[in-house]
Structure formats: structure tokens, C-alpha cells
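pasting for ref. prot 1 ->
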Amino acid sequence: MRSLLIASFVFAGLAGNALSHPTKNAGPVKRRKTLGFGPDHPHAVFHSSPYQIQTGFAPMSADADPIDVAHRFVKDILGTQLTQSMSYKIRKDSYTDKNTGVTHVYVRQVVNGLEVADGDMNINIKDGMVLSYGNSFFKGAVPHAVGNVDISLLSDPHRDYCDVLSDELRANTHSRPYESQVAFNNPHISELSHVHLSNCAHQNLPYESPSSFNQDDPADFRPALLQFMVAATHNDDVVEDILDNFDKHMNEMIVESPTEHFAPTDGPAELLVNNVPDTVNPVKARLAYIQVPGKEAGSMHLAVVWKFEVEMQDNWYEAAVSATAPHRIISVVDWASDAPIPTEPEVSELATYNVFPWGINDPSEGDRAIVKENIDSLASPAGWHAIPYANDPSLKGVRFSKKKGFWRNTTTTWGNNVFAQENWEGQNAYIDNYRPDAGESKAFNYKYKPKVTDGSDAQEEAQKYINTTIAQLFYTTNLVHDLYYRYGFDEVSGNFQQYNFGRGGKENDAVIANAQDGSGYNNANFMTPPDGQNGRMRMYLWNTANPYRDGDLEAGIVIHELSHGLSTRLTGGPANSGCLGWGESGGMGEGWGDFLATTIRSNSTYSDYAMGAWAANTPKGIRNYVYSLDESVNPSTYKTLDKPGYWGVHAIGEVWAEILWVVSQRLIEKHGYSDVLFPPKPDADGTIPAGDFYRPSSGKKPLVPKHGNSLSVQLVLNGMKLQSCRPSFFDARDAIIQADQVLTGGENFCTLWEGFAARGLGPDAKVEGRTPWGGGIRTNGYNLPLACRDA
């Protein structure tokens, strides 16, 4: 059983059920174990209509400070709930969108001095008016002092999730789920089996472990952390070692002093814990509350938990584990998802790259060409090959003289937005890994002509072209950074940069982009910690053809992965990476990546598109359906989420991406198509010309893309900023419709509803018995709002 469990783990960043056709020396394709579940929040709401805003809350003056408006609004909503024991705090990652003028305010509930980890409120404010808000604050009786609720009153989200997965497996295999050959022949059941194995192998540990594991001291996090590591690790040797030497591991943990801050912080100190088994960096630990459903229908309780941030080789978890015994895992999110500008550095000449240019998705669609470094004075003011000495992680501990100046110019694939390098060993080190050096000319011009091999040296043949691979990855990642920046993913909203040019947000979080990562095949993944910590992208070789195919050369895969960083940072605010963990929310995290990748590769002549077709060496690609307007080609509707095989986030994401694809085509029918998705570069004075890209505007009116494809990208990104933490399909849909109201005054109200309703997500769509992991019975809604129906 143990060997079977180990063999079942998959790298599930992009591919989900990616097909593999191993060559002679490939060996088994590893699967990345990942945990993801949490309690239901039936009381959570997202209100985007003026009629849903709290009754009696009058708009303040147009020049009122948005933070003051937020304070007043929160107090108005909470009313008598606000006591000495229950309060709130405005998070520091709140910000104002420079284009729309909407201020996104993020609020966290505080009870007895502890944060409620899932007590979130996001409030969207403009001109003194609350446009919309989401709210998942705890509404029950607040304990008078820090303490834990009687465990017998609480449901167990972990066990509940696993019970449903087990029932679903039995219903589909009619036999023991781990041993049924059906599970390995049917990709849908195989994925369900993998999800069950990843999440449920140790679900009973809190109840069955020896008493020494369950020391009932809520001030001692060590038993809770070790029990989480048993569930989290993919390594059976580590599991056995922890179980056999529990006390030894407890005693070997080293707790550093609480994290120091320049200014005092509210709440309990955050601890750093070293020597935790199977981790690659110190674990962060702090006490918090979390909301847990009671066994009595409709009841919710606050439980004290230890919140852990656990960085492992293939995962980066945010977990909540009961502070008192039995130490149950209540919630877990895997962050890995299978101003004034200083003087610019003196650049002798722009870099050039021999790559598949922007718009060519993969080698099957066109040839390579020499292209120049893109200098966008807004998105990348210093270009792609410059980084401040002070922000360069390769120079930590090195002292500099003033003669060297502010900027360091590089001749490798190392810059302010991305560090690109090989990672053949599949480890977490990256600074000293190999990357090409093009010298003073910065001409990254390398050949690419892999040969068919007998299979024994297929990987070595692919590695011969590592210079080409890294140059392509660096080029694509920088362009995605610049594109998303121009649509609003900037410093204050949490983008990925080492240096933020004094524009706000947290720094030192450029993307670590690993080419030909040796930790897997036939996939890709992206880890998104909160703002101020580096995102990490791992791109793999695909052994689906001879010669091997390199995922770094398929732009759609790279764009999909980078879009995980985009959606995670924009949803719920840049300091909260826990909003897209599972169920419909986690699925949309996958779907946005597919939609944006498909939109970027499309052109004015409509076509259907597959995802990952070149890398996987199959015309259908790695999804159930290609993305198409033709319902006989892609029949996905909202109701499709009820079908067997749509438990995983990738399958859920397919449905969301297909819906967005249909919506975007409606906008293109109405507004036409732009051959260029990049907005015009700023003029010398910093103003952005309208050109043929934006509508003419004046005063404080936001810039509005004039064509349907560029407008759809803008509305999708703006919608991410507006929607609540842990959004449903309905919430994300309503946020996009509100984004259009803010941007255009609602002129596309009916066009958007027509697109959503065409695939069953009209205003009459509904779901009964929805569960946090995506279950429930859905009903398609094809009707339009009354205002959009023909007389």
C-alpha cells in the first residue's frame, strides 16, 4: 500500500490529468501530492448591487478618505457586534487602482486580540460610495477570552471532505478505491483517487495517535505541526520517522525569537521554527481563530488554531491546525498552483533574443526570430536586465562603494522581474544555477534543433538546448509581467518585482523561473506566497514525443502558470494567498490561466484552441475539451460541474475558462478585435496616448480599451480585484459585471449577461447543497435580466 501511495503523487500545476508517453529511459512520471480543503462559510456574501449595500449607509462626500469610508461602513455593518472582545483591522495591503480610482480595502476580523484567519471583508469604494463588498466575518457568539470550543460540538472539515471523496470513489469504481483497475484506466477516477490519496491517507491520525502526540497544551505548537507534516509529506520514510521518533523531533525543533518589525505589530508574535522534518525553510507559526461549522445544522463556532506557513520542496502550505488535542487540520491551502523613478541605468544597447515571438504559442505555429528587449517606461522602467544592487539576492552580504551607483546591469537572464535558470537537480537553490551569459552585446542567440534519439539519451539531448530554453522563458515571463502591469497588476496590487520604484507594495519578490526543472515531467507549477516573497515557477520537459518537448517553449503553459500569481495576488488582496484554495475558487484559479493564455495566442480570424497540445503531443491537448464557441465541440455549462470527473480544480477551471471564452467573443462581436494586446507606450511626459487602443478620455475618467479582446482582459483583471476571498462562480461573474459598470458605466451589461447565460450562468442559475470543495446540485440559468429581454 505504501509503494502505491508514493507512486500516485503527481505534479499538478498545469496538467491535472496530463497524458504521458514515456520513452525508454523515462521511468514513472511523479505526481505532486497536494492538500487543499477547509470549512464551509454559508454565511459569506458578496454584494455588488446598490440595493444589497447595507441599508441606511449613505455615501460620504466624493473627496472623503476611502479608509474613513471603510471604517464607517464596517462599523455600520457590525453594529452591536463591535465589543471589547470583537474588533477589526484594516490591512496594510489595501490600495487604490490608479486607472479606475476604486480603492480596494481589506479588513480582517479580530477576536480577543487574535485574527480570525477566515474572517475577511473586502470593500470597494469610489468617490465616497461603497460599490460592493464581500464579508465572511464570524457572526456567532464571541468568546469572552481566548479559549477553545468543545471539540464535540464541531464538525471535522478534513473528515467530512474525505468521507465524500470515499463515497464518490465507491460509487464510480464499485470496489476498493485504491486497488480498482478502473481507477487507473479512467482519467477522471484516477484524478479523484489521487485527490483522495493526497488528502486522506492520514485523516484519522488525530484520533488514533498515541497520547504523546496529543499533548493538550495550546501554547505548544509542536505536536500540531508534526501531525500536519505527517499529512503533508509525500515521503513515507519521513512519515515513519516522525511516528517512531515523535518526541525526538519535538525536542529538536529550534524556535527563533519572534520576527522583528521596525514598528510594533498587533496580535501574537510570529514564531520561526527550524528543524521541521521535510521543510526547506523555517516554518512560520502564530495563533489565530478559525470558523468551524458545528454539528448542529447552521451553527458556526470559533476554534483556536495554530496557523503555519510551511515551505516544502514541492508545496508551500498555509495551514490551520487545532491548537488543542486532537490536533485536526481545519484548513489548508497550497500556494503552489499545480511613483518617482530613479535615474535609469546606462544601457549600451538593448538585449536581443532568438525566440518564438509573442503570439506564437509553440514551435508548431511558427519560426523563431530575433526580437528586441521590450522597454516599457511604466511596466519595466529599467528594462529587463537591470536590478538595484541592494535588491539583488546574489549579492547579499557584499559591500558596495558609491562608485557603483544604484543599478547593476546584467548580461544574463537575471533582472528585476524574473530570475530564469536551469534546475536539472530539481532542488530549491537557484542563485548559482546555470543561466546563459550573452556578454556585452546581450545577444541571446542560440540554436534549437533537437534530434530524435534511441531514448536512452533523450533528456541529455533536450539539455543541449538549455540556453535557448532559458532565453525563451526569460523573454515570455518578462512580457507577461509587462502586459499584466499595463492592465493593472502593479506594485500596490502585489505584482512580482525585486524593486518597486517607490510606487508602493512589497519588494524582493521577482519570479524565480526554473527551466527544465528536474523534479518532474509533463507539467508545470507556480507557488504564490503573499506579496514580498518570491513567486516560484517550475517548467518541465515533456516525454510525450521523441525528441522530448520542452514546456518552456509553449507560451500558453508559461502564461497559465504566471496567471496563478496574478489571480492569487489580486483576489482578496496581495497579502492574502489563501483565497483560491479549493472548489470553485481553486478551479477559477486554473480557468483564468487557460482563458488568458488562449486570449493572448488568438488572432482576428476566430479559431478553437487546445491547451498544452504541443507539449502533450496530442491535438486535443490536456483538457477534456478544446475551447470553442461550438457546443458540439465544447458542451461545458455551469451544470457540467455536477458531472463525475469535475471534482478537481483543473476540470472546474475548464468550465470557467470556457464561459469566459464565450463572454469574450460576445464583446468582440460588439467592439471588434485588436491585433495588439499591449497598450501604447507612454509619451515622454508620462501620459498614455489613446492611439487605436483606448477610447478618447478626459479628466478623471479611466482608460477604456476600445476592442472586445482587450476589454475582456481588462474586465477580468478588474473583476479579480473586486471579488471576495473564496469567490464562487456567481461572485466572480458579478464582479466582472460590476467591473464594467465602473469602467464603462455599464454599457456592456446585457452583452456580458448574454455571454454568461449562453453557458448556463444567467441570473436564474442556482446551486443547492454547495460544499466548499465544489459539490452540490446545480441548475443552469439561461434567462437574461429583465432589462435585457426583448420587449
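and prot 2 ->
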Amino acid sequence: MKPKIAYHLFHEGTYLKSYEFFGAHFTDKGVVFRLWAPHAQAVSVVGNFNDWNPDAHPMLLQKDSGGVWECTIPDLNKGELYKYCITQCHGENVYKSDPYGIYSEVKPKTASILWDLEGYSWKDKKWLEQRKKAASKPKPVNIYEVHLGSWRTHEDGTALSYYELADTLVPYLKDMHYTHVELMPIMEHPFDGSWGYQLTGYFAATSRYGEPQGLMHFIDACHQVGISVILDWVPGHFCKDAHGLYKLDGTNLYEATEHPQWGTMEFDFAKPEVLTFLISNAYFWFDQYHIDGLRIDGVASMIYLNYGYDDEYRRNKFGGNDSLEAVDFLRKLNTAIFKHFPFAIMAAEESTAYPKVSWPVDEGGLGFNLKWDMGWMHDTLSYMETDPYCRNQFHSKLTFSMAYAFSENFILPLSHDEVVHGKKSIVDKMFGPYEMKFDQLRLLYSYMYFHSGKKLTFMGNEFAPFSEWRYYESLEWFMLDYDRHRQTKDFMQDLNKFYARENALWEKDHGWDGFEWIDADNNGQSILVFRRMGKHPEDDLIILINFCPLTYTNFQIGVPAEKTYRLVFNTDDPKYGGSGFTVKKTAKAQDTPCHNQPYSVTLNIPPSAAIVLKGVASKAKKKTTAKKAKTASSSKAAVSDKKAKVSTVKKSTKAQTAKDTASKPVAKTKK
């Protein structure tokens, strides 16, 4: 792009591919470096190629550029280290990594590395075509949230590379039947303990696990087995490390104010150049790395002016407490991404009741298509921590979520935040002694998977470790040597498979046409009964969840149709560590209304368990359907045979005509 156009779009806030202009780029004349630093007195490129000498390669401030510095250095090779030496507005020299750098040294070193993203041979063409065609179709979303550095490590505790993760994590995801993987931030960050949520290199895939092409290979491997990839992304704030964006030219160039709780700097969303930087960064990961979605961290901290301020009430110009600039940024971000990547997941981690987070921008929303349901998570975990024999007092914690379930497009998350800082692991939160906790865990996950909304669970939860997550070491895979943990993993594997297979659990996830209470009010026995519905009635499921360790025989529930109902999932199965309480495989609907349903069935209900029923058409109906299908097939065959005969006659006639024509002289056409 011509510089004048690039400058204009950059300062206008609409340059979606600003990464193609700014940063360091190989050309026929050498490497071109460009940096925006309008208040700097001088800027130069330093590196191992010039002994880090600030006088060797000065950059020139470009005319009418609004503060863009540029220089071209010949004969540089891929892999060279570099930084910018910036003489700030007050005369102090600082050394900064490239804000648009695509590769960095392994921490604690901080230099940018000259690199090229070209050269990787993608093998996901079929995946890209399919996701484009299916952009508007409903799909199962079952997310496995991963911290790459601690999912699994080498024996000496060092991290696996992107290539090794492609060989180990990707087959595991496939085997466990997850549909999506969400990577905690893999953009470059200096401190492991931030888990990636305090960034310095927004365009650089962290070098902890290898080169950028390694990440491409990992994402490519996911796509080749049908796994979508979501990246955690942090556009709200950045860390104050000296080599990063902080005080880049001596002024608050990228930042507005310091975040009162985290000691980081909030981005200045009032500046078009900052919007260009952030929106083009989001675009970059879709464009260059083929990702399928972003999960935007800390949305509440962005949209509320008073977030983290205990003794100060800040207002916008209209008297409200929402940041008009941040709201505008989020709307522009989502509009841009969905325009160019309509298949994308744009999920907001928004922890309040801010309205219309996952509504379209033209309907007054923020434009995301999914939002984390933090209320469901808090209420459900609180409920599961209580004594099952006292849960009748807290029944509303289960049912309240359905009062607002369709106000947004929700993801139900059991994320990394719930298994750190003394909160205990998920299984350890469950009420009761060792054995009982596993029964409760199966209850928790069955309620989560059968409830309306997409699903997200943090790595390790699937085999129920008792230790909290520790970012500096591997998950405790040795726990699978113990029966209860292995059985829990088997349960999660089957539950994932069942969820993906049953359309009723995800086709109509965000509306009442996909969910119906059958009995929401049985607080005395702590039992829920509801119906999940797909596009076709034969896909519907009847779900009963018993939150108490009591059994029931001949338990009556209402059903909507006169069918035989087949047991299709039982969390109390002995192979999962359940009691094995006898539950009939089928139950025939009786002409006895119950729970406002026209029919009912009677069941044996196992303790602390969920059971799922699916209607089966009667034999008479099956025969009628089969007869109709056979008749239709015969008719179709007859029509097809008739068409074939007509076609043969036509072909024969056409062939004879062609033969006759070929024997005649060809008339010349007058020009």
C-alpha cells in the first residue's frame, strides 16, 4: 500500500491490515522498518547486526505521516535481533521491542526477531471451505480451555513445542470428542505468572513453544481433524514492562490511565491509531494464522468507567458509567471481524449484566455472538458445594439461570479462574467425602451439558485432579492410574460424544424453542425434569437430573408424545463409577397426563444421577413409515426408469441426426 494511503487509514482507525505496513518487512531493497512515535525526538534501529549502536541506522520522520518513522537496511537475514532506540520527548533514550513484531526472543530476553510468516504450507483448505459454507448453521460448541505450557511437559519440566503439542494434544482433543480448543493467550508476554494476560507482543506468537510456523502447524493439525481454534485475546490493557508499549515515545501514546487493580495500562480507545492497532491485530490472527475465533478477556473492565475504582465514581458525558469509547471500539471490532470472517466466534468474558453484549450492533448490541455466563457458573458451583440433603433450600440456584438464559447467547464456563488461588479444583469443590465427590462431579457436568448454552471446561477437569492448576508444571496425568479418575475421564469422553451427536443439545441453544421445563419446581426431592428440542421432533430428549443420593422406583414424569422412550444416557453407569441402580432401558408412554404434558412414563431413578430418554416411534408407525418410503422409492424408481428410456430414445435420435448431418455438405456462413 502506498504510504500516503496507509498514513490516512492508520490515523482514521480503519486500516485492517496495518501489520503489512508497520513493523519490519523484507523487500528487494532490504528490510523496511516503520514505527509510529509522533513525540519522539529521534528513532533508530539497533541490533546484533550493528552492535546495538544507536547511530548506525537512524530512521527518518516521514513528511505528512503523523509521526511515522522509517528506514531501510540492506543485507539483513531472517533471525536477526533488533529493537528501536527511541529518544523520547524528554530526551531520554529507551530501547523498545517492535509493537508490530511477529517474533521475539525467549523470555527473559526481550528483543524482536526479524522473521517472515511466508513459507508455511497450509493443509486445511477443505476446512476453510467448509467453515465458510457452514458459517450460519448451528453447530455444537464444546470448548477445551488449555494453557499450552502446563497441559503436559517433558520429564524435566520444560514445555512442549508447538510441533509436539500438534502430535499429542490434537489427537487427545479428537479422542475426547471436543469440538473446539481455546488457547490461553499465546501472544508474547514477559511473565509466566500472568498466564499470558499481560502482553508486550500483540502480533508475536510466544517463542516459549517455538517459531511462528510451529503455531501455524498446530492450528493446521487441529483443522485437519475437525477441531476449531479460539485464541484468548486481551485488548483492554497491557503491562508496563520497559520494552513494551508503555510510554513508547515518552507520552501516553497507546495508554489512557493505569488500571487501579492490576498495575497495567488501559488502552486509549479514544485514539483512532490505537483502534487500528487493536482491530488489525484481531484481524491478523484470522488472516495469518487461520484461527476460528477470539475470546475477549475482561470486557467488563473495558466498558465500565468505574471498574476497580472503589472510592471514585466516574461518569461519561451523558452521566452514565460506561466508557463510550470502549463500547464504540468493541462494536467496530466485531463489525470488522464478522464482515470478513462471518464464521468467527467472538466471545465476551463479561461478568456483569451489561445489556445486549451478544446482540448485533444494528440492534444496539456490542456485536459479540457469545458471552460467558458467569452467573450460571457461580450459582451452580455454590449449589454443588451444599449438602445434597439440604439442597431443597437452594433449588432456585438451579432454576434461576433459565430466567435469563436467552437474553444473551451464552457459554457455560468452568474455566481456569475457578481452579486457582485457593478456590480448589472442581472435583474438590463438590460436597462430601472422596467417593461422593465423583458422583457430584458427574452431576455437575451432566447439568452443564444438558442445560441450554455452549460449553467450556478447563484442561484437567475431565479427569478430576484434586490439586489446583499450577501454571509452572504439568497436569497430574498419573491420576489416571486410579479408578475414579480414569472412570471420570471415560464419562467425560462419552458425554462429549453424546453432546456432539445429539442435535437437540445444540441446534436451538439460544431460545425457548429449544428448551421446555417439564418439572422445574420439585425442590422437595431436588429433581429437575426438562426437554431439549432440535429442529426435528424425533431428535428431542427428555432429561431428568436427581441432585440427591436417593433412589426412586415407579417415578412418574410427564412426556409430550405417545411413544416408547429409550434410555440413551445414564450417568450412574458402573463404568463411570456409578452405583449401577437398575433403570429400565425403555418406558412406554401412558395416556395419563402429568406435569402439564399429555402423557407420562414411570421410571426408576438412580441416586445423584442424570438420565436421558429419547422417543422411539411405535412399530405400527415404523411399518407405515417404511411402507411409505418403499412406495415412494418404487415410484421414484419407475419415474427414473421412464426417464432413462426417454433419455435413451433422445440420445439415439440425436446420434442419428448427428450422423445424417455429418454426411451433408456444410453450408458456409456469410460474414
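The two ends are 49 Å apart (CA to CA).
The first strand starts at residue 23 and ends at 27.
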